[in-house]
Amino acid sequence: MDNVSSHKHFILDGFSELGALRPVLFIPFSIMFIVSLSANSLLLYIIISQRSLHSPMYILIAGMACVDLSLPLFFVPNMLLNFLFDWRGISLIGCLVQMHFIHFVGTFQSTLLVWMALDRYFAICTPLYYHERMALQRFLRFMIPPVIRNIFIITAFVSLAGPLSFCASNVINHCFCEHMALVELACGSTTINNLVGLLAVFLIPVADFIFIAASYVVIFRSVLKSGRSGFKALDTCITHIVVISISLTVALTAFLSYRIRVGLPAASRVFFSTMYLLFPSCFNPIIYGVRTTEIRKHILKTLTCCHFIHTVSHS
């Protein structure tokens, strides 16, 4: 009976509280989407085109740019169409596919920060063995376990959401298929889903940030022991720490907004959850472009060259 009455089609109804003002959201979110695409594309182009940037640290930054470039593509275009043309419908299969890609790609925002922390640890604490330890064959032992973890955990909680019976409402109070937003519509018990969801939070972003924090504690101790000469090497870490701090703040705010519901409007939860995915995609390439000297130099050189070509062609 559950299977017969279970909804297979859903309505994405995020920010419905805004009423007639809802289409206005198209403007800020489309601006953020364009910033994310252009900034990450430029960052990737600079790193790929400049042979001097083909070192492990810059390759990892390029990896982060790939994640930040691809993540918004899985939900922002559909969200913008939702705002502008009121296209709110999505099938259960489409919802689960979107959920899987969003959460799976999203996990690599923290996983890449782990690899970046390892890169800085090897560069600062064991500089003589840096190239040996960052060689692909050696570094794969640090890359493969987190990738397997991410695949297994995300596949597990998305698979558990699929068989749930949605016999009451089919209105998802979100702009995309977020795990908790879908699960809370289920009629039966969702205890396992909630536990697996919490387990995913603690085993991926929380575990990653604990590892990152421990790595930077060791790095700072090593720099303080080495004296004045070590402080120059610390500069590259500051950029990562800024990115980590912003990512952690946005992630915690999004997580707590779904757990602490008293007095918090539904639109606020949707906003924080959306910003958790979209804001780092806009912010990360800008902070890496501004803070990383070599990347900044090449960006300015490329932009100056483009401006010169444009001026010459119109003279």
Descriptive keywords:
mainly alpha, Rhopdopsin 7-helix transmembrane proteins, 3 strands
Tell me the layout of helices and strands.
Elements: H1 2-5, E1 9-12, H2 26-49, H3 56-70, H4 76-85, E2 89-91, H5 92-125, H6 130-133, H7 136-161, E3 171-172, H8 179-183, H9 191-226, H10 229-259, H11 266-291, H12 293-313
Parallel strand pairs: 1-3
Antiparallel strand pairs: 1-2
Protein name: Olfactory receptor 52K1-like
Organism: Seriola lalandi dorsalis
Transmembrane segments: 25-46, 58-80, 100-118, 139-161, 198-224, 236-258, 270-290
* Number of separate domains: 1
The main β sheet shows up as: 3 strands, mixed
Query: How much β-strand is present in the residues?
Result: under 5%
Backbone CA Rg: 22 Å
| Number of beta strands | 3
Q: Give the integer mean of the pLDDT values.
A: 87
Task: Give the distance, in angstroms, between the N- and C-terminal Cα atoms.
Answer: 74 Å
The structural class is mainly alpha
Q: Helicity range of the residues?
A: over 70%
Can you tell me the CATH class?
A: Mainly Alpha
CATH homologous superfamily - what is it? Answer: Rhodopsin 7-helix transmembrane proteins
Low-confidence stretches: none
Shape: globular
Q: Give the second-level CATH assignment, the architecture.
A: Up-down Bundle
Keywords: Cell membrane, Disulfide bond, G-protein coupled receptor, Glycoprotein, Membrane, Olfaction, Receptor, Sensory transduction, Transducer, Transmembrane, Transmembrane helix
Membrane topology: Multi-pass membrane protein
Transmembrane segments: 25-46, 58-80, 100-118, 139-161, 198-224, 236-258, 270-290
GO molecular function, one term: olfactory receptor activity
